Fold Iron ABC transporter permease.
Amino acid sequence: MDRRGHRLTVGRRLGWTLAAAVPLAFLGVFFAWPVATLVARGFLDDGGLSWAGFEAVFAAPRTWRVIGTTLAQALAGTMASVAVGVPGAWLLYRTRFRGRWLVRALVTVPFVLPSVVVGVAFKSLVISTGPLGGLGLDGSFGLIVASLVFFNYAVVVRTVGALWAALDPRTAEAAATLGASPARVWWTVTLPALAPAIASAAALVFLFCASAYGVVMVLGGAGYGTIETEIWFLTSQLLDLRGAAALSIVQLVVVAACLIVSNHLQARQARAQKFATDAAHDAPWRWRRDWPTTLVTAAVVGGLLLFPIATLLERSLRTASGHGLDHYLALGSAGGGPLTVSVWQAAANSLRTATLATVLAVVLGLLVALVVSRRPRTPSGRRALGVLDAVFMLPLGVSAVTVGFGFLITLNRPPLDLRSSMILVPIAQAIVALPLVVRVLLPVLRAIDPRLREAAQVLGAGPWRVLASVDLALVSRGLGLATGFAFATSLGEFGATSFLARPDQPTLPVMVFRLIGRPGLESQGMAMAAAVVLALGCAVVMGIAETMRPKEATTW
C-alpha cells in the first residue's frame, strides 16, 4: 500500500472511530453514569457497602404490593393486547378492503400519543359526569389495563401483521385441501408460523406495560401504584433517595430481563421473516370468513381507541352553559393556585425543549446508524458492532423515571452541575428518543445494495465521497420519519421531565398533570383542553412524518 492509500485508511478508521465515540460519550455521561450512580446509591451507606436501603424497602408490605401490582398490570395488559391484536393483524395485513390505510393509521396513532393525554382521556370516561361514570371504574385495575391495551395494540398488530403478510398461504391451503378444519389449520399451521412474531410482540408489550408511568399516575389512584410511581413517591414526597434507588434497581432488573427476552425473540422473528415469501398476496375481504376478526377489530378501534379520544374532545368543549371554547381560551392565563405560568407558555417550553432534543437525537442516531450498518469482514468486527447496537438500545428498556431520577442525584455537583439549567430536560428527552431514531434509520442503511458503493468506488469516488453520495443520500429518505418520532416522543415525554422540569418552566405534559390534579370543573376542563392540544400536536407531527416513511423503516 502506498503512502496515500495508508493515509486514506488511517483517516477512514479515525473518522469511524470518532463517529462511534461521540454518541458513546454522550450515552456514557448522560445515561450510563446516572444509572450506575443510582445503582450504587442503593448499595452504599456512609461510603461503605450496605444492604440497609434494600432491607428497609423490602421489609415494607407496600413494596411487595407495588411489585405485585406492576407485574399483574403488565401481564394482564400483555394478554389482552395479544388477544385483540392478532385478529387485527389478520384483518389489516391479510385482507383487502376500502379504507384499510385509514384504519392502519388510526391504529398507529395511539402508540405515539403522550401517556398523560391517554390518562386524561380515559379519566374523562369514568369521572362522575363521564359516559361511564356510573360504573365505578375510576381508579380501577381494569381501567389501567384498558389504557395499556390502548397504547400497545398497534405493537401487536404491526409486529404480527408484518410476518403474517409475508407468509405463503399455500401451506394453509394445502392443509385445508387435505381435510383439516379451519380451527385445525390455525393451530397446526398458522399459529406455529406466527409464534416468533407473537412472542416478540408480547415481550415488547410486557416491557412497555411494566414501565408505564404517566397513565398510572393519572388513573391508578392510591390502590394501584407501580414501581415507577413508587419511585416518584419516595423521591418527591418522602425524600427517601436510598429507598427510591433500591426500588429503581428492581425496576432495572425487570426491564433488563424483558429487553433480553425481547431481543432474542426479535432475532427469531427476523429469521422467520427472512425465510417468508414475498409472493404472498392479501385476499379480498369476505363477511362469511372475516366476520369474527372484523367485529373484534371494530370493537377495539371504535370502543377502545376512538371512544376515549372523542370523549376527551367533547369534555374539553363542555362548559357550565353548554359547549364552547371557554376552556381553550382559559389556556392563556395561569389560572391562579399552584400554576405560575399559562398553558401556552408551557407549550412554548415543550416546543423549545423538543426541538433541541430532536436535534440531539437525530444527529447522534444518524452517527450510530451509520456505524452499526457497516459490514465488517471479520467475526470480531461483526460482534463489536452487535454489542454497539445493543448498547444504544438500552435507553429503550430503561425507565425514563430512572433516567430522570439518576440525573437528579448525579448532575448536581461539579464538574457537571446542571441543577439550575433547563438543558437537562432536552438531554433526557434525547436519551429516550435516541433508540427510536436508530431503529428507523438502521433498516434503511442496511437495505442499501453494496454494489452501489462498489460502483461509486470504481468511478473514482473516495471513501467520504461514497458515504456522502450513497449512504447519506439514501438515508435521507428515513430522516423525516426519524425526526417525527423524535419530536413527538420528546414533546409528550413525561417520565423524566416530571423529575427535571423547573416549577416556573413546566412542559405541556407536566402542566396537564398539574391541572388534572386540581379540584374544580374549570381545572378539569383546562386539563382536557390542554391534553387535546398536546395530542393534536403529536398527531400532526406523526402524520407528516408517516408520509415520508420508507418501506424499510421500522420503529419496534
Q: What stands out?
A: The chain has two domains: 19-33+324-402+421-556, 51-279+289-313. The chain has a mean pLDDT of 78. The two ends are 44 Å apart (CA to CA).
